[in-house]
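To illustrate this point, we now present one chain and its tokenised fold:
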Amino acid sequence: VYIIKVTWSNGATEVIYRRYSKFFDLQMQMLDKFPMEGGQKDPKQRIIPFLPGKILFRRSHVRDVAVKRLIPIDEYCKALIQLPPYISQCEEVLQFFETRPDDLTPPKE
């Protein structure tokens, strides 16, 4: 689970908690919704940032994998919000970063 500090344009800040699988789900939604911007027709036209895919690993490697993904996830979030507003402010992105009931009772670990 990754801890993300979200700062909205009105200055409000919130802390949310997201699993890598939720980032991956968002990525798939973005590529489906914006095929041109996802580079499906022409890879040179891609503006949606890359996110490393899911990988299989043993339970003992969970922390190592999570730590290795910190920088790519940080870069992904920053790149995503720098995209044109029709992408960066689309419903899927806004919903992803909104506070959810789970965020009010964060994971103990």
About this structure: The beta strands are 2-7, 13-18.
